[in-house]
Amino acid sequence: MKKAFLILEDGTVFEGKSIGVDKEIISEIVFNTSMTGYLEVLTDPSYAGQAVTMTYPLIGNYGICYKDMESKKGWPDGFIVRELARVPSNFRSEDTVQHFLEKNDIPGISGIDTRALTKILREKGTMNGMITTNENYNLDEIIPKLKEYTVTGVVKKVSCDKIEKYVPGDIGSESVAADKDVAVIDVGTKKNIIRCLLNRGCNVTVYPCDFDADEVIASKPDGIMITNGPGDPAECVDIIAQVKKLADSNIPVFAICLGHQLMALAHNAKTYKMKYGHRGANHPVKNLETGKVYISSQNHGYVVDADGIDASVAKPWFVNVNDGTIEGLEYIGKPVKTVQFHPEANAGPKDSEMLFDEFMKMIGGNK
Ligand SMILES: NC(=O)CC[C@H](N)C(=O)O
């Protein structure tokens, strides 16, 4: 296998082997601590504009099961692993990670100490980096390029380009009778958000990120769901203006991750970039009403600033038990609830999937 190099903005260089396609990329380097679920990570649109390091040392051992994809393709700019299993062993497996990366035009590097890399990212914070197979790389040229690189325009890249409709039974959901209509605002949705709604008897209409709120409201959905998605939430100025209209429509809204951040920004709160984010399948979040702690799946680099939330507008619903950051908000006087973590899991624990049931109760109340 060809040599590959991961070069970080601070000048650190890791030497490993090239995996996936042989292509040079510059990207934001982030890490995910999940022990399983690499295909869900690779197909989560929220990773667009980032290269993901898996801290679990063996990746690819149970192969690729296409049904487990969370969207139509792989999104990260690059994939960084300690060891890539050459021969998957799993009765469901249809492919290898190497072939998946090739098919999705994703370059990567294996054979590096991903735990050492993670320690650097935890100490210094998320950094930009380059993956290259060029052995004659020149740090003096590369480091300034890495420093000036920023991720923009990624929501548009991952969102659907026209309205899509789903009914129960679609995308592997249960064929239950549908008695509700939910509008999903796709700012980078994972399939399981749609599936969780279908399983609960919702017909789902998915709108692209350049949706018109008046059109969504005029279609009289019972509820509105705003999804996860990539990039800096504060960049989505046009979407935030539309989200404000949805929030004021009196139609129940439930929002996840990027959706949660956009809703907060629509109410004059602020978001900021965390030092190294939360990406993994074991983040504890506490419901402030019940005191109950749930283990959640997470993937975010930005967070809503707790200090900027006006108590007359919203109150904290969940907090992160590790660092105290806001993990959910309930809006005052509006049927709007939002969470920073992923109740749809995939990959990760399903402990908080009952939040979709709570959303169904909010919708029922609207009828
Ligand atoms: N999964 C998400 O929706 C991520 C939201 C946002 N892009 C962040 O990194 O914070």
From TrEMBL:
Pathway: Amino-acid biosynthesis; L-arginine biosynthesis; carbamoyl phosphate from bicarbonate: step 1/1; Pyrimidine metabolism; UMP biosynthesis via de novo pathway; (S)-dihydroorotate from bicarbonate: step 1/3. It catalyses: L-glutamine + H2O = L-glutamate + NH4(+); hydrogencarbonate + L-glutamine + 2 ATP + H2O = carbamoyl phosphate + L-glutamate + 2 ADP + phosphate + 2 H(+). The active site is at 257 (nucleophile), 342, 344. L-glutamine binds at residues 46, 229, 231, 258, 261, 299, 301-302. SMART domains: CPSase_sm_chain (SM01097). Residues 2-132 form the Carbamoyl-phosphate synthase small subunit N-terminal domain. One of its GO terms (molecular function) is ATP binding. It is an enzyme of class 6 (ligase). The keyword Nucleotide-binding applies. Composed of two chains; the small (or glutamine) chain promotes the hydrolysis of glutamine to ammonia, which is used by the large (or ammonia) chain to synthesize carbamoyl phosphate. Tetramer of heterodimers (alpha,beta)4. Small subunit of the glutamine-dependent carbamoyl phosphate synthetase (CPSase). CPSase catalyzes the formation of carbamoyl phosphate from the ammonia moiety of glutamine, carbonate, and phosphate donated by ATP, constituting the first step of 2 biosynthetic pathways, one leading to arginine and/or urea and the other to pyrimidine nucleotides. The small subunit (glutamine amidotransferase) binds and cleaves glutamine to supply the large subunit with the substrate ammonia. Belongs to the CarA family. This is Carbamoyl phosphate synthase small chain. It comes from Butyribacter intestini. The gene is carA.
